[in-house]
Specification:
272 residues, alpha/beta, Elongation Factor Tu (Ef-tu), domain 3, Rossmann fold, 3 domains, seven-stranded antiparallel β-sheet, 6 helices, 12 strands, 28% helix, globular, Riboflavin_synthase-like_b-brl, SIP_fam, oxidoreductase activity
Length: 272
C-alpha cells in the first residue's frame, strides 16, 4: 500500500494555459480524483508523477465537485519538469499524492510577512486570497521578469513588493537581504517563506538569531536547491558529521529548533 506522500490518485491533463511568461497552469481531472481531498492549507503541496519523474508542487485550486485541480508550473528554466509542463497537452496521464501544507499563523498575529520566489508564488497567491479582512500582510515576491507579476483579490490589507530578475536560478536570491533591511511592524507577527533552500536557510537564520522568534511564529520552507549536484556532493562529505550533531543534540535534550540551528551552522561552515 502506498504511504500518504506517495502518488496514488490517477488523473490526466485536461487544460494548460499560460499564467505569465514563466508560469503555466495545468488542470488535472478525472474519476481517479474522487477520493482526493484538500488539506485545507493554502500552501498545500503534493507530488505530481509524470513518466519516471515526480516533483512537488502547490495546489493552486481544487474543485471537489468537478474532481479537478490546478497546478502552476515554472517553465522559465530547464529540467525535465519544466520541459514536461511546456509540452503538456490534454490526455497526458499523471499520478498525484495527498496534499500537505505548513501555513500556521498564530491566533494573536497582528500582521504577516510573506516571502516567495517563483516556485512559491502559487502558494503565496492562495494565502493572499484566503486572508481575512482586517489582516495586514506584506508579500515580497521574487520573479524572473516584470511580466510575471500577478494581481489577486483579497479582503486583507495587502501590500506587494515585486523583485525582478533576481533569484529563481538567475542570481542568488535577494529575499534574505531584503528581509534584513525591513522595519517590521510593532506587535506580534508571523512570517511565511518558501523558495530556494540556501536562501530559506538564511531567512530562517535571521528570524531565529536576529529577530529571536520562536518556531510558532514562522514557517520557512526550501522548495528547491540551486546547483543541486554540487550541493549533494558537498553534503556527502559532511553527512556523517550532520548525523552526529543531530543525535548529540537530541540526546542532550535540545529542542528541534536548537538542533536545526546547530545543523545550519555546520552546513554553512561546509560552504553549503
Amino acid at each position: 500500500m502506498p504511504t500518504d506522500d506517495e502518488p496514488r490518485f490517477h488523473a490526466a491533463v485536461t487544460a494548460a494555459v499560460p499564467v505569465s511568461p514563466s508560469l503555466r497552469r495545468i488542470r488535472f481531472a478525472g474519476p481517479g480524483l474522487a477520493g482526493f481531498a484538500s488539506s485545507g492549507d493554502p500552501d498545500e503541496r503534493l507530488l505530481v508523477e509524470f513518466g519516471d519523474e515526480a516533483r512537488s508542487y502547490t495546489v493552486r485550486h481544487w474543485d471537489p465537485a468537478a474532481h479537478a485541480l490546478d497546478v502552476d508550473f515554472a517553465v522559465h528554466a530547464g529540467g525535465a519538469a519544466a520541459a514536461w509542463a511546456r509540452g503538456a497537452t490534454p490526455g497526458m496521464p499523471v499520478r498525484l499524492s495527498r496534499p500537505k501544507g505548513w501555513y500556521r499563523p498564530p491566533a494573536d498575529a497582528r500582521w504577516q510577512l510573506l516571502l516567495a520566489d517563483l516556485s512559491a508564488l502559487p502558494a503565496a497567491a492562495r494565502i493572499v486570497e484566503t486572508l481575512p479582512a482586517g489582516v495586514a500582510a506584506h508579500l515580497i515576491a521574487e520573479v524572473p521578469e516584470a511580466a510575471d507579476e500577478q494581481r489577486w483579490t483579497t479582503p486583507a490589507d495587502l501590500t506587494v513588493t515585486w523583485l525582478h530578475g533576481t533569484g529563481n536560478g538567475l542570481t542568488p536570491s535577494a529575499l534574505p537581504d531584503r528581509l534584513a533591511t525591513l522595519d517590521l511592524p510593532a506587535g506580534p507577527g508571523y512570517l511565511w517563506s518558501a523558495g530556494e533552500t540556501g536562501a530559506s536557510r538564511r531567512i530562517r537564520r535571521h528570524v531565529r538569531r536576529e529577530l529571536g522568534w520562536t518556531s510558532d511564529r514562522f514557517d520557512v520552507m526550501g522548495y528547491w536547491q540551486a546547483d543541486k549536484e554540487r550541493w549533494l556532493a558537498g553534503y556527502r562529505r559532511v553527512e556523517a558529521r550532520i548525523e552526529e550533531l543531530t543525535v548529540a543534540g537530541l540526546s542532550a535534550g535540545q529542542s528541534l529548533d536548537e538542533v536545526r540551528d546547530t545543523v545550519d551552522d555546520a552546513l554553512t561552515e561546509a560552504g553549503l
